[in-house]
Amino acid sequence: MGDLPPSRANPSRAFSKVGVDLSGPFQVKPRKGRGIRPMKTYACIFVCFTVKAVHLEMLGDLSSDCFTAALKRLAVRRGKPDEIFSDCGTNFIGASKELKAVCSTESVANLCTNEIV
Q: Which GO molecular function annotations are given, in alphabetical order (predicted)?
């Protein structure tokens, strides 16, 4: 059996190295009552490589904007991840391009390096 990659073997704080994937769609009723139609939702799954913890976020659709919002909620609740691993889905690529474009301006670049992204 091969050695584990350094992202899984080296000790670090929880959720500093995460893997992300999306699952769904799930049919969810927003509230109880008659005549309430179920709506389509998706689950964004963040898996911590260090301690094997899981953080779930519900998304309304598969857009890059929804994923970026879920990533911000993860950063606020669990701390900013140092590395993010994904399967390079189109929404992950779109969110990556969007974050790089926003962080390219000098005033926002300082905020991005010091804060959330």
A: nucleic acid binding
